[in-house]
Amino acid sequence: MAAAELTLDELETDALTELVNIAVSRAAKNLREMVGGQVFLSVPRIQLVGRQQAIEILGEQGMDRLVAVHQLFEGELTGRALLIFPEARSLELVRAVAGPEHSLEDIIDLEQEALAETGNVILNSCLATIANLLHRSLKVSLPEVIRGTGVDFFNLSPPPAPGEVVLFLYINFTVKDHDITGYIAMLMDMPSLAVLKALLSDFIERVGGTEI
Amino acid sequence: MNVLIVDDSKLARMALVKVLARSYPTWTRKEASNADEALELQQEFAADVVLMDYNMPGRDGLALAAELRARNPAARLALISANQQHEIIEGAKAVGAVFLNKPVSEPELIDFLGKPETVAGQDAR
Hints:
The complex is a heterodimer. By secondary structure, chain A is an alpha+beta fold. Chain A contains six helices and eight strands; from the N terminus they run H-E-E-H-E-E-H-H-E-E-H-E-E-H. In chain A, strands 1, 2, 3, 4, 5, 6, 7 and 8 form an eight-stranded antiparallel β-sheet that branches. In chain A, helix 1 runs antiparallel to helix 4 and helix 1 crosses helix 6. Chain A starts with 9 loop residues before the first helix and ends with a helix. By secondary structure, chain B is of the alpha/beta class. Chain B has six helices and five strands, in the order βαβαβαβαβαα. In chain B, strands 2-1-3-4-5 form a five-stranded parallel β-sheet, sandwiched between helices. In chain B, helix 2 packs parallel to helix 3. The two termini of chain B are 20 Å apart. At the A-B interface, helix 1 and helix 6 of A face helix 1 of B.
């Protein structure tokens, strides 16, 4: 397949951005309930990039050591969704979710589990909305907490083909009154992109088609 | 009736136009892709109804709704978002805007807009 020629046109990119915006906005309500503070979202950015470039984009955000909750999704679309925080902020998130009454020791004990559960709620909410709006079902793996740098996250198993282009979409969020900031990122490989293009075209027809 | 649609997504605007064109064919529609553009348009196009997205580049829909409310106390405003956080719903209420969940369904939109002009619109209710 001539993967390099596969791109999304303007309206398809718009539709995908809108889809992600709706999905993350719904997930923000869940996160707001978990952390008890208003969640502010950026406008999503969607790019078709090489893995190296995706790593650089994460690097630009001043995020060096990162912690992420990672889930694979499978179905007609295959890829991975990540909820990413600077490692230094992850305890703050756990504290916000668990409540202020816990000692630092408890928080450290809870960290892994609380991150996995928070990620699970947020990422599942996003993926379920995307799947529903596209009228498809996605199977989502159990959450896995990973630590490392952007390079590590973009070279997770199964290993990517060299030079592979990925659909990289991400949205920044911050939580009011808490020092919490992070990213939701999704990566889709090229074979899925052809399917996505077709699904987006159906979505556009359903949502905006047959205009008088 | 003049209606202004404000959303950075072209597809989201198309979805609203689809309902408007079907059920309110005589209304005059204008579109803007962000709050600044909407406010500029509003100077020459006095919208009676404004349908606006919340999460847009630049000023968000709540800031826009507040500004529009200050300029026209009688305008009917709807903030449309999938982001159902308490603060946003309350923020909409505070400026006298109705909160509609995104993607907005045709019957919900018609409930907000009022009696449709066409049979097709009435069927959708």
